[in-house]
Design a protein that fits this description.
This protein is of the alpha+beta class. Helix content is about 40%, strand content about 25%. The protein has 13 helices and 12 strands. The protein has helices at about 10-20, 35-40, 75-80, 80-85, 90-95, 100-105, 110-115, 120-130, 145-150, 155, 225-230, 240-255, 260-280; strands at about 5, 25-30, 45-50, 60-65, 65-70, 130-135, 140-145, 165-170, 175-180, 190-200, 205-215, 220. Helix 12 (about 240-255) crosses helix 13 (about 260-280). The model is unreliable at about 185-190 (pLDDT under 50). The structure holds flavin-adenine dinucleotide.
């Protein structure tokens, strides 16, 4: 089936009324995933709703205790925004290291989330930062944590009459880091990525979040490990039992996959690199 038309609304209200006017529509953001899928016959929408003209979705704003990122913010903008670098080191590095300059120019944060690829770079960062997704339709607006969105993906995933509009991240004082191993297009090695977020009080870990990507269908947090490190000093994050918990989490997630032995080993190095990224210094 061919795409019959590309609709170009100027406002969100128009997007919502297009949902009721047209059937078999798909949102078009940067097109870096969707246009390939259409070309390869994996998706066959009749209408594309291009969000490119909606300025309200391209903003990054400080709103009270949060940073609010529009779903149409590109990776280029994310990696160049001072506010992102200032508050979310992990997100900044993830955006900066994604794809090529051409891809970063086009690809959006919203598209990366909704495409839901196992190795998506942005999602582990958002989960570790306690981000909330704002999803709207003509009738309602729903708020869901990015973590829950992927835990309950089949139930929660964006529907044909919905659009992801914003991502809200609490602006807390924390150390955050991201690291990814390998290249998306590499045929030689499997990829693993990790995002971490650490809140420290009186030199002890007050709260810790670690999210692993490309070691399962969706990125996930290692909750047992997160609880184990609370109250400990930062040095403890390099303890053998911490690294063992990561290995176990990878094993449990992808037991039967051929890449499991490699990824189980790789996760330890990737985690240390994410810590280095958070601390801004070499610890290996
Ligand atoms: C050469 C190449 C290299 C790449 N390298 C990387 C990499 O290193 N890391 C990485 O993570 N990804 C990478 N990607 C993947 C891709 O660029 C990202 O997934 C990108 O962020 C998708 O965003 P987009 O704006 O292009 O989305 P689109 O392709 O426009 O859309 C993707 C999907 O999301 C839906 N969608 C988009 N926005 C919304 C919205 N606001 N509301 C509802 N639904 C929406 C679309 O309908 C579609 O189903 C690469 C891709 C290519 C081609």
């Amino acid at each position: 089936m061919e795409v019959l038309d590309v609709l170009k609304p100027e406002t969100l209200t128009e997007v919502k009324s297009l949902f009721t006017e047209y059937q078999n529509c798909k949102i078009l953001a940067g097109g870096t995933d969707l246009l390939l899928d259409i070309k390869n016959g994996k998706q066959s929408p009749q209408y594309l709703i291009d969000l490119g003209n909606i300025k309200a979705l391209k903003k990054i704003e400080k709103v009270r205790k949060d940073i609010v990122i529009g779903s149409m913010v590109s990776f280029k903008t994310l990696s160049e925004a001072k506010i992102i670098k200032q508050y979310f080191n992990s997100l900044y590095h993830s955006a900066k290291g994604m794809g090529s300059p051409q891809i970063r120019n086009l690809a959006t944060i919203g598209g990366n989330i909704i495409n839901g690829a196992p190795a998506a770079d942005i999602t582990p960062c958002l989960i570790s930062l306690d981000a909330t997704l704002v999803i709207e339709s003509a009738e309602y607006e729903r708020f869901i944590s990015c973590e829950q969105y992927f835990i309950d993906y089949d139930k929660e995933k964006v529907r044909e009459n919905e659009v992801l509009t914003k991502i809200i991240i609490p602006k807390k004082k924390r150390l955050t880091g991201f690291y990814k191993l390998g290249k998306r297009n590499s045929l030689a090695i499997a990829r693993v990525n990790t995002a971490i977020s650490i809140e420290v009080k009186q030199n002890k870990i007050k709260r810790f979040a670690v999210c692993l990507g490309a070691v399962g269908r969706y990125p996930f947090r290692v909750l047992e490990l997160e609880k184990m490190v609370v109250g400990k000093s930062l040095d403890y994050l390099l303890a053998d039992e911490v690294l063992e918990k990561l290995e176990n989490a990878v094993f449990a997630s992808i037991k039967t996959r051929k890449t499991m032995p490699f990824k189980k080993e790789a996760i330890k190095g990737v985690f240390k690199k994410a810590l280095e990224n958070a601390y801004g210094e070499v610890i290996l």
